[in-house]
Amino acid sequence: MKKTKKLLTYLFILGVSFMAALSYELFIFPNSFAPAGLNGICTMIQHLTGLRVSVMNLLMNVPLAIAVYKLVSRPLALRSLVYTLGFSLWLAVLDHVSLDAFAYATENGTSTILGPVVAGIINGFCYALVIRGGSYTGGMDFVAALVRLKVPTANFFTITFVFNCIVAGISYFVYDFQIEPVLLCILYSYLSSSVSDRITKANKAAIKFEIVTQSPETLSKELIEKLHHSVTCVKGKGMYSGKSQSILTCIINRSQILELEHIISNYPHTFAYLCPVNEVVGNFSHINHNGQKEEPLLDDGSDGTI
Predict the structure, then answer these.
(1) What dihedral do alpha carbons 231, 235, 241, 243 form, nearest 10°?
(2) Whole-prediction pTM value?
(3) pLDDT digits (tens, 9 = 90+) for 134-171
(4) Residue 151 has what pLDDT?
(5) Which of 21, 75, 98, 254 has fewest C-beta within 10 Å?
(6) pLDDT tens digits, residue range 167-206?
(7) What is the 3-state secondary structure (H, E, C) of the chain?
(8) What pLDDT sits at residue 296?
(9) Is 81 a residue whose pLDDT tops 90?
(10) How many C-beta atoms lie closer than 10 Å to residue 102's C-beta?
């Protein structure tokens, strides 16, 4: 079963790399701007010299992958290398496929913004998917991992932001001293990071309920039986009524909100308030609609194996 999941993960990473390569062919190359990261450097080299991104991507990423393999994590480096090889392979194949009927570009420059908008959204989506497979997309991910090895306090987003600013600045000189490619690069970078951040955090998010009730035992039992999440009880006193109260704290999946509200509605003199939880770590299980623990479809490499 584990071998099957690992194989599925590698195939999934290859599939995502195809999506990313197709995005480059349809929305980035036709609109003459450099995307973020090392691929932005590769794209500008292709624009100036004709040397394909598929080749430059390998020349830049393979040495970085080897360094990450030796110094940081073998599973992470190998999974990321699969993505990098797949991305270059798909680009090389698509270079020989006529995509003019589908590629987005405008002859007079109107709506050029749509290319990087769509490409940024797709790239952010691809990045979030690859992260779930315990992989990087290469490039700045490798650089950041190596930098943090030497400087553990270094912030990944700061490193990426600084490098992307450099790429955006260089693109001004590469694309005939025009400001538009610089703005398109910034827009692409912003959308890509925003989309990937939202998707990644959504998978880790939860909802915390704090319930004030006079029936803590029966309510807790029903919550545990139906929602399959534990409850913490704290004794208190209602200062308005002077009566003893209990405050139940329960962290649940977002999909369970309506079910919890339905349970609470059956208890008089009970009310609750909720707040979003950005991320839950430790012993917390995601429960599906059948009340069973959700098992991840992909292998994230957390067991330290390839």
Answers:
(1) 110
(2) 0.82
(3) 888 988 889 888 888 888 887 777 788 888 889 999 99
(4) 84
(5) 98
(6) 999 999 999 999 999 999 999 999 998 999 888 887 778 8
(7) CHHHHHHHHHHHHHHHHHHHHHHHHHHHHHHCCCCCHHHHHHHHHHHHHCCCHHHHHHHHHHHHHHHHHHHCCHHHHHHHHHHHHHHHHHHHHHCCCCCCCCCCCCCCCCCCCHHHHHHHHHHHHHHHHHHHCCCCCCCHHHHHHHHHHHCCCCCHHHHHHHHHHHHHHHHHHHCCCCCHHHHHHHHHHHHHHHHHHHHHHHCCCEEEEEEEECCHHHHHHHHHHHHCCCCEEEEEECCCCCCEEEEEEEEECHHHHHHHHHHHCCCCCCEEEEEEECCCCCCCCCECCCCCECCCCCCCCCCCCC
(8) 64
(9) yes
(10) 10
Mean pLDDT of the chain: 88
CA distance 160 to 163: 5
Q: Cα(first)–Cα(last) distance of the chain, in Å?
A: 14
Q: Give Dmax over CA atoms of the chain in angstroms.
A: 80
Residue 229 · residue 287 · CB < 8 Å: yes
Separation CA 302–CA 305 (nearest Å): 8
Nearest to 192 by CA among 239, 101, 247, 128: 128
Q: Is-contact 80 138, C-beta < 8 A?
A: yes
Split at pLDDT 50, 70, 90, the class of 110 is low
**Residue 288: its pLDDT value, please?**
63
The letter for the amino acid at 266 is: N
Say how far apart CA 90 and CA 94 lie, in whole Å.
6
